[in-house]
Amino acid sequence: MAELAPEATETAPVDPANWTCPAPLRDQPVVVMGHGGGGALSAELIHDVFAPAYGNPVLAGMGDSAVLHLGGARLAFSTDSYVVRPLFFPGGSLGDLAVNGTVNDLAMSGARPAYLSAAFVLEEGVELAVVDRIARAMGAAAEAAGVTVATGDTKVVEAGHGDGVYVTTAGVGLVPEGVDIRPQRARPGDAVIVSGPIGLHGVAVMSVREGLEFGVEIASDTAPLADLVAAMLAVTPDVHVLRDPTRGGLGASLNEIARASGTGVRLQERAIPVPEAVANACGFLGLDPLYVANEGRLVAFVPLTEAEAVLEAMRAHPQGAGAALIGECVAEHPGMVVVSTGLGGTRVVDLPLGEQLPRIC
Amino acid sequence: MAELAPEATETAPVDPANWTCPAPLRDQPVVVMGHGGGGALSAELIHDVFAPAYGNPVLAGMGDSAVLHLGGARLAFSTDSYVVRPLFFPGGSLGDLAVNGTVNDLAMSGARPAYLSAAFVLEEGVELAVVDRIARAMGAAAEAAGVTVATGDTKVVEAGHGDGVYVTTAGVGLVPEGVDIRPQRARPGDAVIVSGPIGLHGVAVMSVREGLEFGVEIASDTAPLADLVAAMLAVTPDVHVLRDPTRGGLGASLNEIARASGTGVRLQERAIPVPEAVANACGFLGLDPLYVANEGRLVAFVPLTEAEAVLEAMRAHPQGAGAALIGECVAEHPGMVVVSTGLGGTRVVDLPLGEQLPRIC
Questions:
Q1: Residue in B59, B124, B153 closest to A79 by CB
Q2: N or C: which end of chain B has fewer CB within 10 A?
Q3: What angle do CA B349, B355, B360 make, to 5 degrees?
Q4: pLDDT tens, A237-287?
């Protein structure tokens, strides 16, 4: 971090033409919105600031949750802060995300989520009825996901130093014996499966934020995925990778998996389930559905031999009814994700620098 | 919550003469600073909003951390958000508090803290060097406390919706067999012990916030207390209650214990270790040291027969060098804390409505 000049306060604008710039931290002495976007800037913040500061190998695993050994138990442990704006949107609220998001991060290591913590940072002046509504959404979501909110905290900051309600949840769960799910385990030959239509959460939030209507109401897909994961593991414990493509969407998740495992990913564009309403909205907004956040979807890498059976089990589950085989893991172009377009061409799906839609979760 | 009128947005001023008002939520349809103060308003928020919303008995335990059974392990689980202002102060920083505060919440159930999560909410425009400094303070504090930061998250909010850096940590640790420490276990006859001089953290933060000098620099007492707790448990596993008197100070912690256990607490004013500099600063600022936050102290309820041995073990530990017997738990005036003054009189130490010093941790 010697290159950081504490006295420098100018912020350089992010150049969209430069989205693969390898080390923006060096040119950006201040935090920009993209540092919270789950893309390259977020990865650099972890790599250049947090990992060296904490100096430990667990964090470097870069999974959605850490898997720890404690008291004889295999424990999954994860946290996320939720700052979505607006607080309420079609299909859910910050409260739903705060539960489902952390439940899903635990589930992506194969864990059965058990307990959550909930810490609120409230802005002075926010209506207590709003806090109550968020808390009730959390309680209902926790019940639906089969987890208990076991501990919490509340801080209040002055008006103008928050945005109504921020919630940070952490969660713990148990990882069954014999299950070893992490991005490093992707290998050539794996089938790449997505659990349902993509892009709904991002478009739902964007539509209400911008006051847009697209003919039909598009609702967030926010949902807990641990049951679906359990159904998949019942078919085979040898699921290699699971990821919930939230910030940065499917594109960011697949890039992280490709980089962590040193494999390539090849997608078939026609196989990717993009609802027509999402495609239309993305066209209007200038967004790529591959980078739009989901809050109730997972992407799975499973051995090709198990793919059909896993797909069948997924489609029998409400959260996996729209599951689809969208591509494969390959030995070529390690660390890179490409998509074969409908016209027979191929394009690279790069890791986004930041998030197309800030504060999406 | 039927009495909440969502359309009402006026906030009634808090009347300091009315600090024991039993139900301020009913008169306050909006969040006020005191809701984050760890006093009566915080307790009401938990009782009236969060506990009904989450609908579970674990939360109602009201300990500094929840003790859970998971995979055969007795797990302590806790979270806190840290919004202290300024970020850096004599003796520490937000980073130190974010580690030590959660480590100490775990230790107050007798647990050996093991792993932390760290979630940042960054304000757009904050210097990366500041984030780096906070993260390094967290890394150093984690190493000192013997815990690992295992997982994390970063979100960024627009300028004007944060205050540089907010950090939420959660932690897990193991509670040894035979240890059962919780506020409900206080009983008449227990000795009440404090681990060292009180009021240092609050006065340290206040002095730099207000640009005040009191002749000598007063440094925060922020420190990890799990080792001290282990030394106490080595004397006797039958420690009844532990609490780190942070927000709301010793006064709030003792009131919570008295109420949870249905006992009374009687303190000897002369026995309470208040450093001269703290007393002078509190006199100048109009504060009561009993309500000023500490970040490296604990208060313990132990059987009187064990008190001398526990005190001896505490004084042999760096974090307990200034340990003192300050009072006793009594059957009289259940739920109430009184202090015998030096002049032979007695005064009630009530639960504060909010916090004398907002954003102290």
A1: B153
A2: N
A3: 125
A4: 999 999 999 999 999 999 999 999 999 999 999 999 999 999 999 998 889
Q: Provide the 8-state DSSP code for A159.
A: T
Count of H-run helices and E-run strands, chain A: 10, 14
Neighbours of B276 (CB within 10 A): 11
> Per DSSP, which regions of B60-181 are E strands?
66-70, 73-82, 88-89, 92-93, 112-123, 148-157, 165-174
CB count, 10 Å around CB of A40?
23
ipTM: 0.91
User: CB–CB of A218/A233 below 8 Å?
Assistant: no
Q: B148 and chain A: CB distance < 8 Å anywhere?
A: yes
Query: Are B349 and B251 contacting, i.e. CB atoms less than 8 angstroms apart?
Result: yes
Q: Which residues of B87-111 are buried (b: 16+ CB within 10 A; e: fewer)?
A: bbbebbbbbbbbbbbbbbbbbbbbb
How far are the Cα atoms of A8, A86, A211, A218, B334 from residue A208, in angstroms, in the given order?
A: 37, 8, 5, 10, 53
Contact A309, A236 (CB under 8 A): yes
Measured distance CA(B202)–CA(B214) in Å, rounded: 14
Residue type, A131: V
Residue contact A118–B25, C-beta within 8 A: no
As given in the structure block, the two tokens for residue B86 are 């300024």
Q: Does B69 touch chain A (CB under 8 A)?
A: no
C-alpha–C-alpha distance, residues A265 and B347, integer Å? 72
Distance between CA atoms of residues B104 and B296, nearest Å: 8
Query: Quick check: B50 and A166 CB within 8 A?
Result: no
Name the closest residue on chain B to residue A361, using Cα atoms.
Answer: B155
Residues of B in contact with A45 (CB under 8 A): 131, 154
Does the beta carbon of B82 lie under 8 angstroms from any beta carbon of chain A?
yes
Mean pLDDT of B290-319: 98
Set out the domains of chain A in order of their start, with CATH numbers: 21-52 (no CATH), 66-174 (3.30.1330.10), 183-349 (3.90.650.10)
Q: Tokens 């928050």 label which residue? A: A162
SS3 of A85, please? coil
Q: Which among A122, A123, A151 is the nearest to B79, CB-wise?
A: A151
Instruction: Give me the total of CB pairs closer than 8 Å, taking one residue from chain A and one from chain B.
Output: 319
The distance between the two most distant Cα atoms of chain A, rounded to a whole number of Å, is: 58
Neighbours of A310 (CB within 10 A): 25
Contact status of B126 with chain A (Cβ, < 8 Å): yes
Residue type, A38: G
First to last CA, chain A: 29
At A110 the pLDDT is 97
- How far apart CA B70 and CA A70 sit, in angstroms, is 10
Closest approach of A192 to chain B, Cα-based (Å): 26
| Phi and psi angles of residue B344, each rounded to the nearest 5 degrees, phi first | 90, -5
**Residue type (1 letter), B227:** D
Q: Which helix (H) or strand (E) holds A113?
A: strand A112-123
